[in-house]
Write a structure and sequence with these properties.
Helix content is 23%, strand content 24%. The protein contains four helices and twelve strands. The protein is globular. Bound molecules: adenosine-5'-diphosphate and magnesium ion (MG).
């Protein structure tokens, strides 16, 4: 049986909790997340990194986009994520779900050129499972042979790290999880 109902209840609760964080706390915790990432070898060594523009008080990692890596961001196109390279000052468009997206004319990034993916989440667990918003976008991406071997780091605040989340057969695991307190490498 699908865990859909359980997942929905959890999503609502955790998103509410995240949106009740004060702006000051949100900034402080986000800054710590950025510092943790910048000390993590996988991050330091990555040339091209895919990331996200935060919505609904997701951890704000936008200051990292000014650092010396090539950055890529997605556009939601029907059920898929299409990745484009993006540099500060390049235009952004508000896309599906109110998420900022690169222009469709920006150069496309293919999986061979990508070293790391920073993935937003509603919650994660110690096994590496991720609860998203319910669209399954990252599950579909990481289920494809071209993308599945690229390292992934889930980005959440510590309160959203659970011992075990409900999961379905299609849920893909992350390689690491970064919070304001730690980076957890998942060994499988
Ligand atoms: P999220 O990962 O965003 O929390 P879910 O895990 O609940 O969301 O998945 C949402 C939907 O995505 C599910 O209904 C599922 O059928 C669909 N989905 C996930 N992975 C795949 C896949 N590899 N192929 C087709 N559909 C998928
Ligand atoms: Mg899922």
């Amino acid at each position: 049986m699908s865990q859909g109902h359980l997942k929905n209840e959890l999503r609502k609760k955790i998103i509410q909790q995240r949106q009740s964080i004060s702006e000051k706390d949100w900034h402080e915790k986000s800054t710590k997340i950025c510092q943790n990432l910048q000390q993590y070898p996988l991050f330091k060594e990555a040339k091209t990194i895919l990331a996200y523009f935060p919505i609904r008080q997701e951890p704000d990692i936008t200051t990292l986009f000014l650092t010396e890596h090539n950055w890529g961001f997605s556009r939601c196109v029907r059920k898929s994520l299409i990745w484009h390279s993006w540099q500060p000052n390049d235009p952004l468009i508000t896309g599906k779900y109110g998420i900022l997206e690169p222009s469709p004319n920006a150069p496309i990034l293919t999986p061979e050129t990508v070293d790391l993916i920073l993935i937003p989440a509603v919650a994660c667990d110690y096994k590496g499972y991720r609860l998203g918003y319910g669209g399954g976008f990252y599950d579909r991406l990481l289920n494809s042979p071209q993308w599945c071997s690229i390292p992934t780091i889930g980005i959440i605040f510590e309160f959203a790290l659970f011992s075990q989340l409900p999961c379905d057969p299609w849920d893909q695991k992350l390689k690491a999880i970064c919070t304001e307190d730690k980076i957890l490498s998942i060994y499988t």
